[in-house]
Amino acid sequence: MRRLLFAIALLLSLAVPALAVQPDEVLSDPALEARARAISAQLRCLVCQNQSIDDSEAGLARDLRLLVRERIVAGDTDDQVMEFLVDRYGEFVLLKPVFALHTLILWIAAPLVLIGGAIGLFVWVRRRPKSAQTATGAGLTEEEMAALARLTDKSTDA
């Protein structure tokens, strides 16, 4: 039983996300550190590209974390820090792209494709040929109906 509990505790400890912020990076003022963490969570690691700099252990991410903390200590607001980094590295550094005319395709492409697919599916369903065998016999000529009636009568007699 102890081994099972130990194994569960070990697995749970591995599931906790490990932040890459090193102890020597942490600011002494908790309010400034909280601001730095909030900003770092919004910035993309330029090496990993799918992680924030707060989660990345890459050297460049560490440099960016230190730069963010340096700007905060210098008295910059959160917006000024973000603007500085965007000016220096471009909008790619932002994990969430800004909503602007030049990024409009990023925001509307997925809904447009989804709506276009739904319209295409609707049109395809409406235009596909109806089944030749219907319960009411719609679409059959008089001769075909008579032949069908004879066949069903013979099969019920046998």
Question: N-to-C terminal Cα separation, in Å?
Answer: 71 Å
Instruction: Describe the main β-sheet briefly.
Output: none
What general form does the structure show?
elongated
Mean pLDDT over the full residue set: 81
The third-level CATH topology of the domain at 20-101 is Helicase, Ruva Protein, domain 3
CATH superfamily of the domain at 20-101: Cytochrome C biogenesis protein
Q: Summarize the amount of helix as a percent range.
A: 55-70%
Order of helices and strands: HHHHHH
- Rounded to an integer in angstroms, the radius of gyration calculated over CA atoms is 32 Å
Topology:
Layout: H1 2-15, H2 30-40, H3 59-73, H4 78-89, H5 104-127, H6 142-157
Helix pairs in contact: 2-3
Could you walk me through the main structural features you see in this protein, from its secondary elements to its overall organization?
The protein is mainly alpha-helical. It has a domain at 20-101: Helicase, Ruva Protein, domain 3, CATH 1.10.8.640. The protein has helices at 2-15, 30-40, 59-73, 78-89, 104-127, 142-157. Helix 2 (30-40) crosses helix 3 (59-73). The protein starts with a helix and ends with a helix.
Summarize the structure in short.
By secondary structure, this protein is an all-alpha fold.
